[in-house]
Automatic annotation (TrEMBL):
Molecular function GO terms recorded: GTP binding; GTPase activity; microtubule binding
Residue stretches spanning the membrane: none
BP GO annotations: receptor internalization; synaptic vesicle budding from presynaptic endocytic zone membrane
Species whose genome carries this gene: Pardalotus punctatus
Gene it is expressed from: Dnm3_0
Cross-referenced CDD domains: DLP_1 (cd08771)
Protein name per UniProt: DYN3 protein
């Protein structure tokens, strides 16, 4: 009972160690952050897990995400903004979580990164709660009344204003109880907020979050339960298949081999058709590259061919005259068939080079595609090697037949 009444915290990376001094908790967070990200403002997507036990707080799971950094500093990478954005989207895209969009009161709400990201994944505002901070730092004569009354940029779940401790308060060891009293006094004494003071502040935010999260869980639980049951049935079906499994059974090995070969065939077909589950954003490959060879590279090779119209006309004239022999060549509407075929065949022969070159390029891309597909078989080197050898051999055989046809 004494342990339950005492507030304490535990870190996942310090299992078994209980922190009762929350200044030590803050220091441990700073130390662990420096250990994971370095000493010069680096970032990491690895979370620091902290669990707080207290009889004075409600049950909530909070994920504190970083704000968007526009310009990299210290050891931060050049694409720091995109990295942080991807990290945030990874969490807020989950349908079973609420989004706490925190925005300072002394900035333009229309430029809020938090609200912008929330709107991307929650356009209807079903999971978004607005939080306005730094109300005590607004310029004299200004306030955030319209925002807090949900009139300026309305959210379905509205906004809640809070006043947190300043860095000076933290350095001065101002405790949480004193900070909450100061926050309460601020809202009760401010002329623009006193009429809504009972709907402002950190304690009210805790209460709303707990209530909203409970409601959200209740709303999403049926679909979540249905999904779990579906997954459970699927897993049970898979387990049933292997219930009488014997590692030495050759039929099992044959079945596994056929499944892997079949999967290779599906992957190869998808890469050629362009319907694969992974899209390469760095270069053209598979069917797209083959399509480019046919529609761009081959026509380009044809355009590069030298064509002498004067020479061609002379050849046509000689061909027609040679067909007539000693007979007089009279003007006629149609070119003699033999002359036409002789000229056309000679021109078609010139296409052989570009055609063979295109065949080589297509076959090389097919072999590259085979190598990419066999990467999934890397766990079985012999199977990977044999699959690549057999399929590549078949492709080269088709290449020779194609060249013979050309």
């Amino acid at each position: 009972l004494l342990l339950f009444l005492t507030e304490y915290a535990e870190f996942l990376h310090c299992k078994g160690k209980k922190f009762t001094d929350f200044d030590e908790v803050r220091q441990e967070i700073e130390v662990e952050t420096d250990r994971v990200t370095g000493m010069n403002k680096g970032i990491s997507s690895v979370p620091i897990n902290l669990r707080v036990y207290s009889p004075h707080v409600l049950s909530l799971t909070l994920i504190d995400l970083p704000g968007i950094t526009k310009v990299p500093v210290g050891d931060q990478p050049p694409d720091i903004e995109q990295q942080i954005r991807d990290m945030i989207m990874q969490f807020i895209s989950r349908e079973n979580c609420l989004i706490l969009a925190v925005t300072p009161a002394n900035t333009d709400l229309a430029n809020s990164d938090a609200l912008k990201l929330a709107k991307e994944v929650d356009p209807q505002g079903l999971r978004t709660i607005g939080v306005i901070t730094k109300l005590d730092l607004m310029d004299e004569g200004t306030d955030a009344r319209e925002v807090l009354e949900n009139k300026l940029l309305p959210l379905r779940r509205g906004y809640i204003g809070v006043v947190n401790r300043s860095q000076k308060d933290i350095d001065g060891k101002k405790d949480i109880k004193a900070a909450l009293l100061a926050e309460r006094k601020f809202f009760l004494s401010h002329p623009s907020y006193r009429h809504m003071a009972d709907r402002m502040g950190t304690p009210y935010l805790q209460k709303v979050l707990n209530q909203q999260l409970t409601n959200h869980i209740r709303d999403t639980l049926p679909a979540f339960r249905s999904k779990l049951q579906s997954q459970l049935l699927s897993i049970e079906h898979e387990v049933e298949v292997y219930k009488n499994f014997r590692p030495e059974d050759p039929t099992r090995k044959t079945k596994a081999l056929l499944q892997m070969v079949q999967q290779f065939s599906v992957d190869f077909e998808k890469r050629i058709e362009g319907s694969g589950d992974q899209v390469d954003t760095l270069e053209l490959s598979g069917g797209a590259k083959i399509n480019r060879i046919f529609h761009e590279r081959f026509p380009f090779e044809l355009v590069k061919m030298e064509f002498n119209e004067k020479e061609l006309r002379r050849e046509i004239s000689y061909a027609i005259k040679n067909i007539h022999g000693i007979r007089q060549v009279l003007p006629c509407l149609f070119t003699p068939d033999m002359a036409f075929e002789a000229i056309v065949k000679k021109q078609i022969v010139k296409l052989k080079g570009p055609c063979l070159k295109s065949v080589d390029l297509v076959m090389q891309e097919l072999i590259n595609t085979v190598k990419k597909c066999t990467k999934k078989l890397a766990t079985y080197p012999r199977l990977c090697e044999e699959t690549e050898r057999i399929v590549a051999g078949y492709i080269r055989e088709r290449e020779e037949k194609t060249k013979d046809q050309v």
